């Protein structure tokens, strides 16, 4: 017994030392590996937390909004641009920024009633003397475009009744027939509010200061009283 016990003690101590060394080296290697993962090019980044994939961007301007008369003051939906593949474009009446009443290259302008467009251009020329400029937010629209706006308005406002205060149906919309235009910016609508009747241009709805239609009799007699909103307009009851 006295001969073997010291040898066994030494053997156990050796194994313990080796095991400790192995553990220490393994820890170092694990640390180095973790560091390399962080600094190597192409290492995956942590997933973002709390980012809304539907968060609106300042996408191509001129996409439809959810109002019948959607001048910039009423652009509830410059932010309402979801999947662009489901939305209609310029051929259906969408208007990018910077389009004036003189831009015939855009159907929203070119397809307006000629008498309305002529009055707008005369008014815009007059406003230019006061350093004003008329931009078209929305003019002519295709029935498909109008129907899309109507669906979006129902979704936004929660009912057909409330949506009707802002967006007409394709069957009743004066935009679809080319008889209405939405003008911006606010300086232009303010100018038209004061001088529009001289050109036969009248604001029709109190809740839409950007929406103008042609009323030739206004040149001599002034614009007729405004409706509170489109639901008060008999033309919308068809």
Describe the protein.
- The protein is an alpha+beta fold and 238 residues long.
- The chain folds into two domains: 42 residues; 166 residues, Muramoyl-pentapeptide Carboxypeptidase, domain 2.
- 37% of the residues lie in helices and 6% in strands.
- The chain is built from seven helices and four strands; from the N terminus they run H-H-H-E-H-H-E-H-E-E-H.
- Strands 1-2-4-3 form a four-stranded antiparallel sheet.
- The N and C termini lie far apart (114 Å).
- The N terminus is likely disordered.
> How many angstroms separate the termini?
114 Å
- Roughly what is the average pLDDT, rounded to an integer? 76
> What's the architecture of the largest domain, going by CATH?
2-Layer Sandwich
How much is the radius of gyration in Å?
Answer: 34 Å
Q: Kindly report the CATH topology of the largest domain.
A: Muramoyl-pentapeptide Carboxypeptidase, domain 2
How do the helices and strands follow one another from N- to C-terminus?
HHHEHHEHEEH
Helix count equals 7
User: What's the structural domain tally?
Assistant: 2
Coarse structural class? alpha+beta
Beta fraction of the residues? 5-15%
**Unreliable stretches, pLDDT < 50, 5 or more residues?**
1-10, 39-86
Most strands sheet: 4 strands, antiparallel
**How many distinct beta strands?**
4
Q: What is the top-level CATH class of the largest domain?
A: Alpha Beta
